[in-house]
């Protein structure tokens, strides 16, 4: 199949979250399975810099003149088309926001133009002698593509993947007219959502197939608790909705070869993991204590990720003579509160605001357990990285966390399948109790703990299995079209 994979971020070209990892890992796996896949993304300056050599292969006119640049995903043979509209993408700041963290005021125009060019590429309207059989769109930034292609008599099949229902691309109703979109798209059966313009609805209404990044999240988003106001639409389209658990790049995330670690290790050499714990403690300015249970967290410090629960639980956890390290940024109030608490417990708790890929790898390797208490989690990757690195995850029983971590209970211990710990009620109290249980097993049941580590490390979380499922999804989309 000829597959055009549209995304607003792709690792290692540019990354703000898990979408970037999926947008490289899945295309690489699909190419290995023999598919003719091309990635298309905006030409951010940092992405072009990381891409290396590119060539101009087409020119076009949207709101402003632009070009299509062609390159390759670094260290692969996967072609990447960069949509170069300097007025929209040649900016200092992130893909979606300014350097100070405010959304770009013209995000609707930026990504509408991007979607327009994706449609032209898909239908071979820019002279590149290539037309897509399937266009795979990801999140709201690409969601207008299925809506625009649905207005055409000849078109490729479309697949729309929801990576997070909470980010829908909502704009004032007046924006619709400024985007020069087909008038028939403005209705409750189109892009209108309570008198707002919803990019997300472009994918949910018009894509041939919809999927999310885990089977459990696919079920959850049809309920009001997780559907973010679109649950009725998702129930209406349930026959076209499915979930495929994300994979990971098991070359990039491999403790036996990871260049960011103090010592490499594997299932057969798990003792070497201890050197990473010492290095992590040193990196975060904590005393090097092999005996202290070390809990790690990486991610956005926001309520969705349960950081307010963590803040409430930390006094009780720190009373257990544990150490806690956190890497990330987010809500300024939460950041400040966590930093203040760290100052009160300098021997036990350390917070690093910001993001560092090498430090994230060391944190996964050096922690004994990884805490991931998300209120909702479409898939999550860190709990998967943790298992790959022999670090036992503690997770809230939601979304992709259900599908990727096997809870420790009487049955799974008897069967020898457990890999982590679930807490089933969304609260600081439930999270604390489960974490205390994990600490107790870590200290007093070494054989069980070792088995949890080995079970997680042996699971194949690579992209191949998921990529095969996406091949089947593309075939379903072609049949639906």
Task: Please describe the topology of this protein.
Blueprint: E1 2-6, H1 18-32, E2 36-42, H2 45-51, E3 55-61, E4 65-72, E5 79-84, H3 86-89, H4 107-122, E6 134-138, H5 144-149, E7 157-162, E8 170-172, H6 174-178, E9 196-198, H7 199-206, E10 209-212, H8 215-220, H9 224-227, H10 231-236, E11 241-243, H11 273-283, E12 294-298, H12 307-318, E13 323-328, H13 332-344, E14 349-353, H14 357-366, E15 369-372, H15 382-388, E16 392-396, H16 399-404, H17 410-415, E17 421-423, H18 428-444, H19 446-458, H20 463-480
Parallel strand pairs: 1-2, 1-6, 2-5, 6-7, 7-10, 10-11, 12-13, 12-15, 13-14, 15-16, 16-17
Antiparallel strand pairs: 3-4, 4-5, 8-9
Helix pairs in contact: 1-20, 11-14, 12-18, 15-19
Q: Using the alpha-carbon principal axes, give the shape.
A: globular
Going by CATH, what is the homologous superfamily of the largest domain? Glycogen Phosphorylase B
Low-confidence stretches: none
Give the biggest sheet: 9 strands, mixed
């Amino acid at each position: 199949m000829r597959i055009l994979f549209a995304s607003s971020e792709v690792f290692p070209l540019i990354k703000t979250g898990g979408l970037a990892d999926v947008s490289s890992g899945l295309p690489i796996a699909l190419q290995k399975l023999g598919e003719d896949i091309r990635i298309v993304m905006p030409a951010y300056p940092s992405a072009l810099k990381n891409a290396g050599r590119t060539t101009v292969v087409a020119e076009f006119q949207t709101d402003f003149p632009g070009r299509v640049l062609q390159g390759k995903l670094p260290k692969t043979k996967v072609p990447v088309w960069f949509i170069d509209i300097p007025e929209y993408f040649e900016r200092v700041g992130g893909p979606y926001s300014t350097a100070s963290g405010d959304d770009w005021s013209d995000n609707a125009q930026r990504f509408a133009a991007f979607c327009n060019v994706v449609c032209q590429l898909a239908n071979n309207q820019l002279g590149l002698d290539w037309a897509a059989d399937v266009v795979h769109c990801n999140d709201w930034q690409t969601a207008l593509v299925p809506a625009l292609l649905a207005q055409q008599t000849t078109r490729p099949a479309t697949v729309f993947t929801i990576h997070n229902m909470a980010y829908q691309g909502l704009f004032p109703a007046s924006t619709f007219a400024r985007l020069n979109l087909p008038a028939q798209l403005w209705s409750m059966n189109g892009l209108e959502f309570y008198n707002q313009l919803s990019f997300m609805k472009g994918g949910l209404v018009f894509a041939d197939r919809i999927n999310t990044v885990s089977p459990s999240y696919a079920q959850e988003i049809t309920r009001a608790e997780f559907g973010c106001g679109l649950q009725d639409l998702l129930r209406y389209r349930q026959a076209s909705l499915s979930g495929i658990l994300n994979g990971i790049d098991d070359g990039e995330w491999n403790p036996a070869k990871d260049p960011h670690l103090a010592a490499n290790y594997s299932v057969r050499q798990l003792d070497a993991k201890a050197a990473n714990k010492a290095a992590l403690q040193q990196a975060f300015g904590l005393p090097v204590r092999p005996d202290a249970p070390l809990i790690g967290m990486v991610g956005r410090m926001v309520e969705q990720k349960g950081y307010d629960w963590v803040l409430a639980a930390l006094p009780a956890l720190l009373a257990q003579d544990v150490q806690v390290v956190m890497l990330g940024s987010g809500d300024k109030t939460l950041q400040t509160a966590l930093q203040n608490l760290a100052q009160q417990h300098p021997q036990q708790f350390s917070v690093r605001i910001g993001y560092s890929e090498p430090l994230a790898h060391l944190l996964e390797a050096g922690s004994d357990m990884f805490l991931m208490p998300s209120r909702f989690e479409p898939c999550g990757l860190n709990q998967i990285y943790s298992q790959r690195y022999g670090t036992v995850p503690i997770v809230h029983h939601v979304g992709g966390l259900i599908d990727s971590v096997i809870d420790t209970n009487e049955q799974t211990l008897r069967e020898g399948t457990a890999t982590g710990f679930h807490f089933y009620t969304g609260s600081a109290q439930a999270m604390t109790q489960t974490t205390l249980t994990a600490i107790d097993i870590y200290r007093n049941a070494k054989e069980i703990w070792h088995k949890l580590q080995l079970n997680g490390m042996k699971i194949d979380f690579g992209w191949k299995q998921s990529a095969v499922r996406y091949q089947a999804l593309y075939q379903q989309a072609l049949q639906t079209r």
